[in-house]
Amino acid sequence: MSEENINNSEEIQDDQLKDEITYLSGMYRDWFLDYASYVILERAVPYINDGLKPVQRRILHAMREMDDGRYNKVANVIGQTMQYHPHGDASIGDAMVQLGQKDLLIDTQGNWGNILTGDGAAAPRYIEARLSKFALEVLFNPKTTEWKLSYDGRKKEPVTLPVKFPLLLAQGVEGIAVGLASKMFPHNFNELLDASIDYLKGRDFELYPDFPTGGSADFSKYNDGLRGGTVKVRAKIEKRDNKTLVITELPFSKTTTTLIESIIKANDKGKIKVKKIDDNTAEHVEILVHLAPGVSSDKTIDALYAFTDCEVSLSPNSCIIENDKPLFIGVKEILKRSADSTLDLLKLELEIRKSELEEQWHYSSLEKIFIEERIYKDKKFEDSENMDQAVAHIDKRLDPWKPKLKREITREDIMKLMEIRMARILKFNKDKADEHLSSIEDEIAEVVHNIENIVPFTIKWFQHLKAKFGKGRDRKTEIRSFENIVATKVVVKNEKLYVDRKEGFMGTTLRKAEYICDCSDIDDVIVFHRDGTYFVTKVSDKAFIGKNPMHIAVFKKNDKRTIYNVVYKDGESGFAYMKRFSVTGVTRDKEYNLTKETKGSRIMYFSANPNGEAETLRIVLKPKPRIKKLTFEEDMGELAIKGRQSMGNILTKHEVHKISLKEKGVSTLGGRKIWFDPDVLRLNADSRGTYLGEFSGEDKILVLYKDGSYQLYNYDLSNHFEPNILAIEKFDKSKVLSAVYFDAEQQFYYVKRFEIEEVEGKLIRFIGENPDNKLLSITWVHYPRLEITFGGKSSERENEIVEVAEFIGVKSWKAKGKRLTNYEVKNIKEIEPVVKDEDDREPEEQVDEKPDVDDIPFEITRPKRDDDDSGNQMSLF
């Protein structure tokens, strides 16, 4: 071979190699994008059409194929599903258990695990499942299903199921793909149906999640389920007594195991003080938290929310697949599209049914004509030489009726007529045939009417689902507004703070130094120096704060009641200034100055007053010519409280020799004004909610509950209250409470008058221990009057007026009271008293939620007794 030919051959080989080479960067780009697209579309993110991931859809389709009304082993269902899902039995089994635990589409039998405790399900060979009646009604319809080949081409599977219900929002979903995630929370079954109805009626609606584990949730920042929103979810914590808390509901995504672990962890870190934890969870959650001696139960509840998994923040991310592309849309938009999809599916089903009915009517009409006109006995028909002649003859004989038919007559129609058996012809009955055609026409008319009124028809569909499947599906998660818990206010003081003034160090490990106070490891400390500088810093093991600090204390942010009284000498003028101020918020570790910041300024007198106290000072001046009065007194209470940067007032222009305390003062802030916020059921000093009054000293708050009990509280802002509050107010021990209640055991009405016993923290039920006793009315009126109307066998009796103050005296809350009457009672109402004090008033709210006006009566219908034939039932609340 010549050299030229060899060179040409080498060039050809080089060109071929270049065509075959795929560079790594290009391979990575293509393969990774293909993989990411596959994971997003086929594994992690649900489709908006039916709200299902592919594995869920394939499980349900396989179960529909196997469905015979009986339970199937989950292992068998997994095997059937593997014909459609190419990812192994483990992924199918896990997905099926999750579907079963949602208690909506799958009817389960056996140990399917526990979402409360986190226990896993039994092996697939031990547990069984079948489709629920709800799934069979809303998920499947082969006539409206779009099909595609399975991954190996041997089977057909649905592209999406024709779901006629907002399934995606009912079940919720969580999936993580490549560079994309989807997280939607479950919603309440009945609320979804109500919202769908509202949307179809053109009304606005709101949708909030409902978690299967219960608890309470704050949805104020839900953001319609889109990215950036947050939901705070809390466990339900109740006080069994002052030493025991009971957790009865869990925050979503947590189990009893993880919750208890978080409590133990917080206890080990010293955030809370817990003596013992008992987990009695079975069908329902019951975690008993036993508190250490001397620990406040109310503050511990707040601490559990602040430092454990009793409160969690969840972030939704509403992402779905539409037209094979990921899409971020809100929950309300998802429901609207689901309702529109349901409407379209129902309309399609109606149109298919209409076509089927029209086809039935067409053939039944042809059959009737064929038999009645005895076309089958025509001589030409019988003498036809072949099938084409016979078909042509029948087609010609049907010409007179063709204009009345709904469509043209085809060869297939005639062939079907020719297949009618003689037995059917002999049994033909004209009246029955007419009746059958009439019934078909009626059904067609009904279907046409439903198509023309598809919106009302769809509304009826949703109403039907709610009536049939909505029982027992009440909301489990309480919608509440939460008050932000300040961790430093509820954390247990688990450390001791010490200071070495000579060396200028402060910390929790300086045990040989001067003890300052108890604190927590998340507290801040405020430090004042004699030169007027001060700063706030974090509690630490050991930190340098400057030599010889004047004052050290735990700093409370936004504390307006701690007032600092100061006298300082200005270094420039030599004048003595006095000021009163609070420090509510500063930048940590930044130095501030309470003087005029002139060189040589120093503090001459300093006091920190936790409740705004103002003392009287004795000031002694240095003797100088022309100073007649060397000693005088100054009442700091006469000074206004100003900002921390204010210069203050001039105390004296002369040189001060000595300042001493003459007399301790009282608070100049007065009592603490307290409000009750009914939204979060908490006290506050921020003017939110109902004003309760000004509290100081031993003042208490009285809470009357609708179940006939009361409790006295102090005015600590950490107090927790139950939601069934009838009235809450500042306690006045001079007032007398009058109460009417129904005794369930005696089946009579009683009235009692009593003063509130001053037992703080104890829940007292004043209408008896029988849980069926019912409180009917309470009032603070001094001279209440009741009018009794009789019923049943005593209906002829005249109404009776009862002067309560004369009828019964003031006794203990433990007393049973006095029976109002022995006769049958129809109703009781409170009427205007003859003698009424100007300050008489009723509690803010009545048990029956009627206006709290003294002269507006409330009706009471007496419960039916065993010997009562009136049939009346009691309606109280």
Please tell me about this protein's structure:
This protein is an alpha+beta fold. It folds into six domains: 26-187, Topoisomerase II, domain 5; 231-314, Gyrase A, domain 2 (2-Layer Sandwich), CATH 3.30.1360.40; 334-469, Topoisomerase, domain 3 (Orthogonal Bundle); 493-551, no CATH class; 556-670, no CATH class; 676-831, no CATH class. 27% of the residues lie in helices and 26% in strands. It contains 19 helices and 48 strands. The strands form 14 sheets. Strands 25, 26, 28, 31 and 32 form a five-stranded mixed beta sheet that branches. Strands 40, 41, 43, 46 and 47 form a five-stranded mixed beta sheet that branches. It has a four-stranded mixed beta sheet with strand order 14-9-8-17. β34 and β35 form a beta hairpin. α8 (189-200) packs antiparallel against α17 (454-469) and α11 (331-372) packs antiparallel against α16.
Task: Jot down its keywords.
about 900 residues; alpha+beta; Topoisomerase II, domain 5; Gyrase A, domain 2; Topoisomerase, domain 3; 6 domains; five-stranded mixed beta sheet; about 25% strand; elongated; disordered C terminus
